[in-house]
Specification:
Blueprint (H helix, E strand, L loop, with lengths): L1 H21 L2 H15 L15 H8 L4 H13 L7 E2 L16 E6 L2 E7 L4 H4 L7 E5 L2 E2 H10 L7 H13 L6 E6 L5 E6 L13 E6 L2 E6 L7 H11 L6 E5 L9 H8 L7 E7 L1 H7 L4 E6 L12 E4 L6 H12 L2 E4 L8 E6 L6 E10 L18 H4 L3
Parallel strand pairs: 9-10, 10-13, 13-14
Antiparallel strand pairs: 1-16, 2-3, 3-4, 4-5, 4-6, 6-7, 8-9, 11-12, 11-16, 15-16
Helix pairs in contact: 2-4, 6-7, 9-11
Length: about 400
């Protein structure tokens, strides 16, 4: 029996080796470049309208020889796009954190300074007293300007305004497997050194798809990063049936950084329409590149049987409203609802999982541009400003 078991293990081992040998990793890396160039919906927004190239990236691509080096190249190739919505489907323990899901400070470049534009509720940064308007002066002991320049020089690429913003946010979010040393200059001029954990190291509390609170004549439904969970539909339906008559309704989308899917979005908005209504436009540049014929269509939200609420909600958004959360925001705006708060994450397009050659590597790439029904790119949508959300949210 032992001999048979060893023989079987030997055969399985040979099979695994054969399968590994069948994968041409360099070919997969080259196909990855072609895949991005052909399908990336925002290629025209890149410098010179082309996939960024450098001697560094070319050398790394040509040195790919196994799954690990292919994934390492894929991470860096996608980083060259400076697009938080373009990521790999797998990762390393020390990969950069995904923004905005695993960051607690939204950073924007202001000339040579890097300002905190927003701080995530209940995060290590908020607990440490970081506030909007503070300036990030260093990360991991390196002056911020130099760290950003080094990030791009390491890829063999120069800086652009978009790249500065992207790198700043990635650097502040940090590596997944280690804490973050952040130096800030407060609005009063005080310099503080902070040691903040990676958000990957923080145990996430198990929350229901949404939290509901009714008080002072309003009902607030806050989504707990649940727009990709089908259970959210049933939870929302139940919540809507229990909204007290006459209460103003508020939908709080400020904790939806991980996006979701259009089924959940259409289910939510379906409560507020009595006939079909367009809520976003899709545009697929890859088809025009291939055929010369442009393709664009309007996605609609449809009424749901026996589910109708006559009064539109107020929708509250912020920097941690991402992807499908942003789609819901522009959808409600198209229906005539008031959308208030700060700017959203500005994640570009609709993401599709694409495979690199024959390798077991998938990348998540924006392949469709998304626009409001009036033609405004979703990432450029600006809500009505709200200096203080408390009057909107009531006592909730």
């Amino acid at each position: 029996m032992k001999t048979i078991r060893l023989a079987l293990l030997f055969v399985v081992g040979l099979s695994l080796c054969a399968n590994t040998a069948e994968i041409d990793h360099i070919d997969a890396a080259r196909k990855l470049d072609a895949l991005i160039a052909e399908n990336y919906a925002y290629r025209d927004d890149l410098p010179h309208g082309e996939l960024p190239q450098s001697d560094v990236l070319t050398a790394e691509r040509d040195a790919v020889h196994d799954d690990r080096t292919l994934l390492a190249y894929a991470e860096r190739r996608l980083a060259s796009l400076a697009d938080h919505h373009a990521i790999t489907g797998s990762s390393f323990r020390d990969s950069w954190a995904v923004v905005p899901t695993y960051t607690d400070m939204w950073v924007v470049a202001q000339g040579d300074r890097f300002a905190v534009d927003a701080v995530r509720d209940g995060s290590p940064a908020e607990d440490a007293g970081v506030m909007a308007g503070d300036i990030i002066t260093a990360v991991q002991g390196v002056p911020m300007g130099r760290a950003v320049s080094t990030f791009w020089a390491d890829l063999g690429l120069g800086e652009t305004p978009e790249r500065k913003d992207y790198a700043a946010r990635v650097l502040v979010a940090g590596r997944r497997d280690r804490s973050r040393q952040i130096t800030i200059e407060t609005r009063s001029g005080t310099v503080r050194d902070l040691d903040l954990p990676s958000l990957y190291a923080i145990e996430q509390a198990e929350l229901p798809p949404m939290s509901v609170c009714s008080s002072a004549g309003s009902t607030v439904i806050r989504f707990n990063n649940s727009l990709g969970d089908i259970a959210t539909i049933n939870a929302f339906d139940l919540a809507m049936r229990t909204v007290p008559d006459g209460n103003a309704l508020v939908l709080d989308l400020r904790d939806t950084p991980s996006g979701g899917n259009t089924m959940v979005a259409r289910a939510l908005m379906g409560w507020f329409v009595s006939k079909p209504h367009g809520y976003q436009i899709h545009n697929r540049p890859a088809e025009e590149r291939e055929t010369g014929i442009p393709r664009q269509w309007v996605e609609q939200v449809l009424p749901r049987k026996d589910m109708y609420h006559a009064h539109l909600p107020t929708v509250v958004v912020g920097r941690w409203t991402g992807s499908m959360g942003e789609g819901i925001a522009i959808g409600f705006a198209a229906l005539g609802a008031e959308v208030v708060g700060s700017r959203m994450a500005g994640l570009k397009g609709a993401v599709e999982d694409l495979r690199a050659g024959d390798a077991d590597l998938f990348v998540k790439l924006p392949t469709e541009r998304l626009l409001t029904p009036s033609g405004l790119p979703r990432e450029e949508f600006v809500p009505q400003p709200s200096a203080n959300d408390r009057p909107i949210l009531g006592a909730c």
